[in-house]
Amino acid sequence: MRNALSKKIVDIEPSGIRKFFDIVNEMPGAISLGVGEPDFDTPYIVREAGIYSLEKGRTFYTSNAGLKDLRVEISRYIEKKYQLEYDADNEIMVTVGGSEAIDVALRCMVDPGDEVLIPQPCYVSYVPCAVMADAKPVIIELKEENEFKLTKEELLESITDKTKILILAYPNNPTGAIMTREELAELVPVIIEKDLFVISDEIYAELTYDNTHCSIASFPGMKERTVVINGFSKAFAMTGWRLGYACAPKQIMSQMIKLHQFAIMCAPTNSQFAAVEALRSCDEEVRKMVEAYNQRRRFLLNAFKEMGIDCFEPYGAFYVFPSIKKFKMTSDEFANRLLAEQKLAVVPGTAFGASGEGFVRISYAYSIENLKVGLERIEKFIGSLRNEG
Amino acid sequence: MREKILNMLEKNSRIDLKDMAVMLGTSEAEVANEIADMEKEHIICGYNTIIDWDKTSEEKVTALIEVKVTPQRGLGFDSIAERIYQYSEITSVYLMSGGFDFTVIIEGKTMKSVAQFVADKLAPLDSVLSTSTHFVLKKYKDYGKVLGEPQKDERILVTP
After folding, report:
1. How far B156 CA sits from the closest chain A CA (Å)?
2. Fewer CB atoms inside 10 Å of the end CB: C or N, chain B?
3. What is the C-alpha to C-alpha distance for residues A342 and A154, in angstroms, rounded to an integer?
């Protein structure tokens, strides 16, 4: 029998998180600060809207781009929140999570050999999606001293004649870094001058603390060269509903819708009806969740400071990314030993790219009580490390 | 700052002062002062505990009584409310809009003792025109907290 598999797919490295998950799962009684999803339930008013749509028998397909009502609400919402103007009819598509949007955007925009700039540490799917689209992923290794923000110099150094796309993901998973308007403004002239396109993954936009989120698409000259990706998972605690969206100029969007039509048909109808309600009436619920995350963020940072663990202050998402370099072991070793000795799972920074070496990702999508239990275990662990050393 | 402190205390009145200061990005002294001031101003009126008595061996019944009254000249509803809320068995008294005047919440050991209290003490008051007593059979949610078993975290332990 011939080999059933595509070499391209087989050659893609499995996610480092997957490997670690298998180890955690084998460990009875392990607790975790390793999740990448909110601990809140979806606001009841949204769940109820989903239930109502089922009661009404709204179990049909929607148009490929998504329910018109939902696209109109998205258009209003992103204008109100991020000063982005996208036409609900031609420039917005509802997707199966932000993940689908990343895949579709890349496949629509690159030809074989085109280079895609991927600043790391970052979410695990950008590199594989670029490879699946036959592009060449080019990694930019972000630095802790820049608080894991992309600098103009780093961008310029990585650009070649073949560079076509820059992936920007702020607020960032796993570092929690954000980029302010002023910091993005540094990059914009380079992007325009070098004629790059941007895929801006803004899934954590609402979870920005002591600042407001700025989308790179809101700069003059950027909308026409940017695909903005956002969704409902993080802001509205709707991960399991699998609903995201992409916004792009019509010329790009029409191709994205074509691909989405053949691969997906449409996002889940029930989730779309629920999402309309989320955008219409959850400002207060979201505000409360953001306030709770912000309190936990301060709580964790302070606890690390007291323990003598170095950590830059992240202003977004729900992760902190402390440095474990002073313990003289790799991220993998640190995470594995913490799990083995204290039964606490945190994610090694290297799961998000080589430049995550020396860091671990700790999520604060947990109640303060659970964070306290986790922190006690970290404290015991580093106490024993210090005794060894 | 005050609203934030109150929101936190409303959810957990046993929260550690130091934790609170860290979570709000301020100093422990500032939080302590604000709380002390709000206690003095009677914005914070007390710190209660939410208890699911059904899980204990203690017998307790709660009743909600709708009370219709005749307001007194010059004093309105306040003096009659005061006559009612002085009883230690009564946990809450609210002036209502709509079909009756007061909601009175009362706790007792047995249904009989509550019925006795209504018959002996509440109903005979001069201004009380009528009462209607409803016993609570089961409490599902109280003060924003769902009683019963705590929810389990069903999320996958590690996700990207």
Report:
1. 7
2. N
3. 39
Q: Report how far residue A102's alpha carbon sits from residue A259's, in angstroms, rounded to the nearest whole number.
A: 12
Q: What is the CATH number of the domain that holds A346?
A: 3.90.1150.10
Q: Report whether pLDDT(B75) > 90.
A: no
How far is residue A224's CA from residue A219's CA, in Å, rounded to a whole number? Answer: 10
What is the residue-averaged pLDDT of chain A?
A: 97
| Residue pLDDT, tens place only, A38-49 | 999 999 999 999
CB pairs under 8 A between A and B: 54
A173:B160 CB<8 A: yes
User: What is the per-residue burial (b if ≥16 Cβ within 10 Å, else e) of A145-160?
Assistant: eebbbbbeebbeebbe
Looking at A281, A300, A319, which one is the last position of a domain?
A281
Q: What is the ipTM of this complex?
A: 0.87
8 A C-beta contact, residue A83 and residue A218: yes
SS3 sequence, chain B? CHHHHHHHHHHCCCCCHHHHHHHHCCCHHHHHHHHHHHHHCCCCCCCCCCCCHHHCCCCCEEEEEEEEECCECCCECHHHHHHHHCCCCEEEEEECCCCCCEEEEEEECCHHHHHHHHHHHHCCCCCEEEEEEEECCCCCEECCEECCCCCCCCCCCECC
A31 and A78 fall within a common domain:
no
How far is the C-alpha of A24 from the C-alpha of A340, rounded, in Å? 9
Host domain of residue A183: 44-281
Note whether B159 contacts A37, CB cutoff 8 Å: yes
Which amino acid is located at B49 in the chain?
T
Three-state SS for A94? Answer: strand
Q: Which CATH number goes with the domain that contains A206?
A: 3.40.640.10
- The model's pLDDT over B19-70, given as tens digits with 9 standing for 90+, comes to 999 999 999 999 999 999 999 999 999 999 999 998 999 999 999 999 999 9
Q: Quick one: residue A353, left, alpha or beta (phi over 0 = left, psi -120 to 50 = alpha)?
A: left
**Residues of B whose CB is below 8 A from A36:** 159-160
Q: For A96-126, what is each residue's pLDDT tens digit?
A: 999 999 999 999 999 999 999 999 999 999 9
Helices (H), ranges, chain A: 7-10, 16-25, 44-55, 68-82, 97-109, 126-132, 152-158, 181-193, 250-263, 269-281, 283-307, 331-342, 368-388
